[in-house]
Amino acid sequence: MLALLLTNLSFAVLLGWILANKERAEEREAEAVQAATIAKARALQSQMSPHVLFNAISGLTELVWKDQKATEEALVNLAHLLRNLLDSSTRPVDPLTSERAIVEQYLAVERIRLGARLRVEWDWDEHLESHLVPPLMLQPLVENAIKHGIAPSRDGGALRIFLRPEGSGFCLGVANTGAPFEEGRPEGIGLRNLRERLSLLGERPECLTLRKQEAWTVAELHLGLTPEASQ
């Protein structure tokens, strides 16, 4: 009887050791997967900075031979944009106030290039702007609207940027007139990058929508509320 008890006890100890090791291995594997996912999301985020700058600089080449003073002003705005992009690339999340600041600096460059052809209005709920989002959620939507809607149109177009409450979260979006939205048109680097980052962050594909509404092309991000910035 004693031998049987010792055998069962040994088996129980061995089984407990195996299960504990298995649990630790699963925890390490889950941590490794999470770290890899975060690293990939950060890599995609860092890719956005040179992409934004490349497009902004490409747009400025039109000004060099036309208006030297405007080019100098645009370069100053571009320097401020670069500083904010570099700062945001070091952080996993930013308040929506920072998102707006980056977009305003980007628009300052585009206004010099497009002049009166770019008409901007904000419909922005300031009560929501302290909430945190991964950096560069809004800028790709603005860039896409200008590149595919406003810039190709001879008369330019209107750009409406909005932040509104929606259920238990909020809707962050951009609407534009100009060249009409084309169903099935291949998406550019900015939107593809944004969709992949959203997927890595666990967001559903339908949280980012792109549609036509009368004369407007509307891009919307439907996100849940995150903890507010402490500062």
Protein architecture, described:
The chain starts with a helix and ends in a 7-residue tail after the last strand. It has a single domain, classed as Histidine kinase-like ATPase, C-terminal domain (Heat Shock Protein 90), CATH 3.30.565.10. The chain contains 5 helices and 7 strands; from the N terminus they run ααβαββαββαββ. The model is unreliable at 29-41 (pLDDT under 50). The strands form 2 sheets. Strands 2-4-5-7-6 form a 5-stranded mixed beta sheet, covered by helices on one side. It has a two-stranded antiparallel sheet with strand order 1-3. With 231 residues, it is of the alpha+beta class. Helices cover 55% and strands 19% of the residues.
